DNA sequence: GAGTGGTCTAGACCACGGA
DNA sequence: CCGTGGTCTAGACCACTCA
């Protein structure tokens, strides 16, 4: 723990814990911080990156470093969509549609949905923003036959509600997979981050009654924004 | 994607995918790589760190950079211990006992186990090594009254088996929590890594029949070594 | 003891954000 | 337009690993 960047980390943590900074607040510029810690930007950034990896700080690309708020708690075993989960934790949510179109299912989607190669599926790309910070890049692959006209509907709200209310289809079981990965080029901009930022990925397959897979989703979360918790009964 | 370190990443990925390197194999030294890519160590390390964050490479502290093997797949909803899960995936496992003693339960353990403050619990720290690579630092907190003499037993094998065979106690339900964090000072050495390395943390509470919490565990996984998958029926 | 990775310095230029 | 973060250079010293 004698490394300089470790000492800087502790100093920053101390200041945050003392309440000098509050969630979502921007830190002083790198040059200022480096000077005040008596070091160079390279070493300062080593400390900041490490705090980012710990989920204590996050960065908005080219905008600066910010204090991470508490993560949203999510239970993959629950049948609730993010909308209800996030609202129940008194956080604000807005959803931005990136793109939605019919396309050839990729390997993963084919396998999850039990489709033959070259089958077309509805692909919806969206970004969810919590408390004014974009934190999830969500991709939904949906079997097209069951959902005629889906692409013409308002896709900026809960898809689960849409399936249920407009198509009378409700997920009754699901599989999921969780792993650590990172943000790729296409997702970086809408998440205000840069390629390579740590992400927690949640993949889910939704089955309707009759054990028919109708939706496969991949959600890329900024890793400090979510915590998985499940209470099995 | 014009950044130099991004190009280097792609070159390395290419070589790995072409089979130039196999799992657990060590890359050439940083100085050699930097020279062969026509750059400095700083930029080269930027590329390597990014590949580490993606789970494609891992490092052994002061020993070098290695190719990540496929992750172990783990289902937190299953009642199996790591031992059986890992063996079923044809990976070798060995367990090293770091320390085991009776100690005051910390806040987390108290809450999970429903204990009053200042209650003593059995705390067991172990490191699990998969295919000769240490990848999990596991801490188990166990209520002491139910397990007399536990500290004198062989703690280098499955605790679940021990509970069942020696104390006739079997977990029937559990809660769990999963989040991204990183490796702290004390865990760094036994994991052959350095403080700050990304980790995926799995916390679990085990309940016996009668809904009595008897074990709380926190497992710090090197993030590239595990993938959570669950199939709910 | 040679070579390694871990850390650090003191600069530099660029593209983008925000006023 | 100025200041920012993103990237990069060309060195350096140290503690450790391994032959």
Offer a few descriptive terms.
homodimer; 233 residues; alpha+beta; Arc Repressor Mutant, subunit A; Chorismate lyase; 2 domains; 6-stranded antiparallel β-sheet; two-stranded antiparallel ribbon; 7 helices; elongated; DNA-binding
What is the CATH architecture term of the largest domain in chain A?
3-Layer(aba) Sandwich
Number of domains of chain A: 2
Number of beta strands of chain A: 10
Find the biggest chain interface. A-B, 35 and 35 residues
Structural class of chain A: alpha+beta
What does this structure look like?
Two copies of one chain form a homodimer. The first copy, chain A, has a six-stranded antiparallel beta sheet with strand order 4-5-6-9-8-7. In chain A, strands 1-2 form a two-stranded antiparallel ribbon. A two-stranded parallel sheet of chain A has the order 3-10. Chain A folds into two domains: 4-67, Orthogonal Bundle (Arc Repressor Mutant, subunit A); 72-228, Chorismate lyase, CATH 3.40.1410. With 233 residues, chain A is α+β, with helices and mostly antiparallel strands. The mean pLDDT of chain A is 93. Chain A is 26% helix and 36% strand. In chain A, 34% of the residues are buried. The first copy, chain A, contains seven helices and ten strands. Chains A and B meet through helix 3, strand 7 and strand 10 of A and helix 3, strand 7 and strand 10 of B. Chain A binds a DNA duplex (19 and 19 nucleotides) through residues 3-5, 29-31, 39-43, 45-46, 59, 61-65, 194.
